[in-house]
Amino acid sequence: MKATDITDIPKEKFVLVQHDQVMHDEKLKTKPIGYLKDAIMRFSRNKGSVVAAYIIAALMLFAILVPFFSTYSTTFKDGYYSYALPKSKILSKYGIMTGISEYTYNQQSFDYYNSMPGAIVEVLDSYEVEDSGRTNTYYDVRVDSYKKVGYVYKNVTPEEYDAILQYQEETGIQILYPMIDTKKIKVESYKTDANYWYEHNMKGAAEYDKNGEYQDIFLKDDTTEDGYAYYTAKMGGAQYQVRVLYYEYFRYVNGKEPCFLFGADGYGQDILVRLASGARLSFLLGISVATINFILGTIYGAIEGYYGGTLDLTMERIIDILAGIPFLIVVTLFQMYLVRKVGPVVSLLFAFISTGWIGTAGRVRAQFYRYKGQEYVLAARTLGAKDRRLIFRHILPNALGTIITGSVLMIPGVIFSESTLAYLGIVDLQTSKLTSIGTLLSNGRSSLSTFPHVIFFPALFISLLMISFNLFGNGLRDAFNPSLRGAEE
Amino acid sequence: MAKYIAKRISLMVVTFFVIMTICFVLVRLLPNQVPEGQGDYATAVKEMRAAWGYDKPIMVQYGIFLKNVFTKWDWGFCTTVGPYLQPVTDYIGSKLPVSMILNVYSILFSVPVGIAFGIFAALKKNKWQDHVISVLVMLFISVPSYVYAFIVQYYLGFKLGWFPIVLNSGTNWFTTSMFKSMVLPILALSFGVIASLMRMTRAELTETLTSEYMLLARTKGLTRAQATMRHALRNSMVPVFPMIISEFIGIISGSLIIEAIFAIPGIGSVFVNSIYARDYSLFMAIGMFYTIVGLAGGIIIDLSYGFIDPRIRMGGGKNNESN
After folding, report:
1. pLDDT of the residue at A292
2. What residue ranges in A204-272 does DSSP mark as E strands?
3. Of A254, A288, A311, which one is at a domain's C-terminal end?
4. Are A135 and A158 in contact (CB under 8 A)?
5. Phi then psi for A383, rounded to 5 degrees?
6. Which terminus in chain B has less CB density within 10 A, N or C?
7. What are phi and psi of A142, to 5 degrees?
8. Does A53 reside within a domain?
9. Domain check: are A433 and A460 in the same one?
10. Which domain range does residue A239 map to?
């Protein structure tokens, strides 16, 4: 049967589908994906960049939070613990970051450190070496860098002295040790050292008794219980000179055992908190430079690129001149002129800003040249859009991806330059009580061969930061480039 | 082409003069230009100050400076750095060789290594060798050069004791012991260059390897090695070569931080010393030296594109024709 064969369909069987309503397009069921969302989606698919972003976030958190929670302040300084090794209470149980290192000592040094409680953790080996007819004994030992300070002389008031005595009674920890009878010290230069409390020969080696024990040369005083003098009065009794075991004395004064997670530098400052506050300054500088350059460069480049012609030519010549001045000269001149007025950090900031925006301006200018002749711009202009609207609403968003990528990558560049300048000493942050990664690196430089830990942590930090920023920047660049959409598998 | 070069050079000269004027004025306006001489030097310094017009207005000083530079090639005299009251040009000239020797060694080492590894990575694209090389490149490009310097200094210099930690003193640049002491700075200078050359060679070569003329070359019977060497590699060198040239221009500038770390008495360390010690004439002269190297380098690199790749017409107009 053909369709044409049916002829007599009753009219009432026909109903209009859309009798009294307006027909609409069906709404899209999927959500629209904007430029930014698309970029985020493609960025999150790049595993390496995501990991790098997390590392950067962690490093920033480290810089922000550590100075708040650190047990030592940035100004903390204890000369007795200069170059103390990294020590972690938790990790030292597993044999890492114990604050212990290996040394080879001769007899005199061995006796010196062996007389301190806990300084020599373990004697690995002892051997004799013949040298020009004399036999010298050497010891391979593992030494606790926190306890090798041993005893020191301290001046306290009588009230403080009583407080220490009370503390000793309450806790059972001995801080005060008998004074030494300096008349029995044989070498003049040893007399100020509180650690020669044993009988020794002219070379400083200990003279043991029959049992191989040290023989003390403590100062006698009949009025005390055990017959030893625990202080000598100075300044007519206003000050007592006492001999303390420094490790316990530190605990008494600071309320905790000395323990620097990243070790201490040459001044006995905690590297952990110094690194964090230095990183804080570096991040702050990097981010502010990037932000200001982003704004300056965008405005400059937009004006250049949009208006073109003679204006563009003049502005390009200004850029040529600014870009031609070596950066070091710019920094030096800013330091020489401004450092007394506004301080080293602000003058460094000015130096970075004075030439840093040039790259951004160039990128923005190129984008404007690319887009300003396109039809949609013409259409917008025909509809009456003003220059400002055309620049910021119509053309600039096209360039945003490259500019953002460039600005983000400026942060590690600034941090790197700052560290180089501080390392070379051209920017002197130390006199103004500031610290930066470069300052830490240059401080650690002199002790590279003996105490590499001073330089290790800042170097590790900046390397990690640079690697992460590079990976992150690569990811951003790919994410903001719509022409790569679908190109990745 | 000649017209374009002439235009670029004249623009460069103008830029250089503007920079020199700005720098001169800013440097000369700083206080305490030339400290008073001690003892026998007092009269000598006085005469020098008068000859250079330190007591005259700034623009007159600039006139004297320009006259001395262009008639006698005299850029001023050393005060706090270098031999007292000697011309700075002599002093700078005595410090240039060591910077240049080190950088030449570093380039001779890093260019072949960088290109070789780049080629290797491109040929093994997406295999494990390529991934290993990519990771290494990422590491070496990102990690600052002073960190390598510390690492090689600590491990190769101090722990293993293979090489001296700092450069030997003296000026016998071509002895074996001097070369041995140069190994560590050369290594520290090279890592970054090797990595960036490697990355660029790999990127360019992977692109040319998949191009159609490579297919044609293989079709007409060339082996893979022949086609790669004669066709792909030559084309992929187009952006790599200007990079090598820019490295070569960089050799006369020296490296500030590497020279500081390895105690190299080169031009970079003199520059830093002149800033520390406020030796303004020396600072000005080296600063202008760096400026001219930078400006001329930019032009040479731009022009080298045209020489290497005939498809790029320098200074061509819209239609890419030579004028």
Report:
1. 94
2. 231-234, 239-245
3. A254
4. no
5. -75, 0
6. C
7. -105, 125
8. no
9. yes
10. 151-254
Contacts of A246 (CB under 8 A, 6+ apart): A80, A149, A150, A151, A152
Same domain, A247 and A288: no
Same domain, A227 and A317: no
Which residues of chain A, if any, have pLDDT below 70? 1, 19, 431-432, 482-489
pTM of the model: 0.83
Nearest CA in chain B to A328: B287
Phi first, then psi, for residue A125 (nearest 5°) are -165, 150
- Determine contact, residues A59/A276, Cβ cutoff 8 Å: no
Distant-in-sequence, close-in-space partners of B29: CB < 8 Å, separation ≥ 6: B58
Domain contains A36: no
**Cβ contact B22–A325 (<8 Å):** yes
The residues on A that touch B, with CB distances below 8 Å, are: 317, 320-321, 324-326, 328-329, 332-333, 336-337, 416, 419-420, 423-426, 441, 445, 448-449, 452, 455, 459, 462-463, 466-467, 469-471
**pLDDT of A482:** 65
Interface TM-score (ipTM) > 0.90: no
Fold held by B93-279: MetI-like fold (1.10.3720)
- Residue closest to A146 by CA, chosen among A259, A70, A274: A259
CA distance B70 to A94: 71
Say how far apart CA A109 and CA A451 lie, in whole Å. Answer: 19
pLDDT at A266: 76
Evaluate whether residue A446 is within a structural domain: yes
CA distance A209 to A482: 85
Structure tokens at A370: 């690319």
Whole-angstrom Cα distance, residue A470 to residue A49? 9
The partner residue sitting opposite A425, judged by closest CB among B19, B30, B276, is: B276
For chain B, helix, strand, coil in percent to 5 are 70, 0, 25
Q: What pLDDT, on a 0 to 100 scale, did the predictor assign at position A489?
A: 41
Torsion of CA B263, B265, B267, B269, to 10 degrees: 40
A132: left (phi over 0), alpha (psi -120 to 50) or beta: left
Read off the tokens for A5. 């064969």
| DSSP structure string for B238-274 | HHHHHHHHHHHHHTTT--HHHHHHTT--SHHHHHHHH
Q: Are residues A423 and A324 in the same domain?
A: yes
Three-class DSSP category at A180: strand
Alpha-helical regions (H) of A46-139: 47-69, 107-114
Per-domain boundaries in chain B: 23-72, 93-279
Q: Contacts of residue A332 in chain B, CB cutoff 8 Å? A: 275, 283
Strand ranges (DSSP E) for A218-346?
Answer: 231-234, 239-245
Q: Do A424 and B260 touch (CB under 8 A)?
A: yes
Domain final residue pick, A111, A144, A177: A144
Q: How far is A111 from chain B (nearest CA, A)?
A: 28
**A125 and A182 assigned to the same domain:** no
Domain count of chain A? 3
Q: A452 and B26: CB-CB below 8 Å?
A: no
